[in-house]
Amino acid sequence: MKILFLGAGAVGGYFGARLHQAGADVTFLLREPRAAKIAAGGLVVKSPRGDATVPVKVVTSGAPGSGYDLAVLTCKAYDLEGAMDAIAPAVGPGTAIVPLLNGLRHIDTLRARFGGSRVVGGLARIGAVLGPEGEVRHTSPFAALSFGEFGGAAARQSLRDLDAAVKAAGIEGGLHDKIEHDLWSKWIMLASLASMCCALRGVTGDILASEDGMALMLETVDECRAVAAAAGFDPGETGMATVLQYLTQRGSKFAASMLADLEKGGPVEAAHVVGDMLARARAAGLAAPNLRFANAALQTYEARRARGGLPG
After folding, report:
1. Which residues of the chain form CATH 3.40.50.720?
2. CA-CA distance, 283 to 304, in Å (whole number)?
3. What is the pTM of this model?
4. pLDDT tens per residue, range 60-89
């Protein structure tokens, strides 16, 4: 099995490196500067699960190669158009596309470009950032990768092979026969977290320290859960217990990466994570006042950024 990872950022770099260490045939499709750096010095991972400098294979968009069984997308949602252009020459008749993007809006976009049968569900759960020298810094106690066929269809061989590789690499998750439920559970947590962190400008512990923080957090979670339920993917009490475990811990430093993007004045996945959840609430006739406020706050930030009104 040949796997192409688009990008060697925090998410793609970590999982691609671990799969390579476990013997998988992994190639990274990168921009020229990143490709040159990794080709020269390897892909550096700093992790509580073990540091490593991994000599991986790299290609660039000019010559991405062919014969890949899987193309794993780890880009930000706002970079999806460029990502699709980059992988297109490498997508052959038997290539399945595994997107690890946030939300669900990207699924229809990928299907329109490459065909519905090529696109499978995928998601990553990990805390990781790129360090100042381009090293991958794994910051969370967990690192999980889940994927599966939509609609509960039987998994194609390449996904079964990826499941074996994930287990060999000691990565949690693997093949999931109800991937839509997993995607919605993550989106509920992320949309709630991003809404609260970005609207209130703090990490979970900061928010919960405020007088109304816990109530606002729980209300936002309920709004997102109602959208999932309307789509037929209510996580149930067991699934919600996991979501709430992360979002209701007082003193926690847990935060959406969107907050860090916003605080440094960068682009944010507002439309894909919060905006699309709000749009689906409206389409289902559901009231979502907290999502509405958070989305307005994020759109205000984007408008200010677009006119050059941010400091620095």
Report:
1. 2-177
2. 28
3. 0.93
4. 988 899 999 999 999 999 999 999 999 999
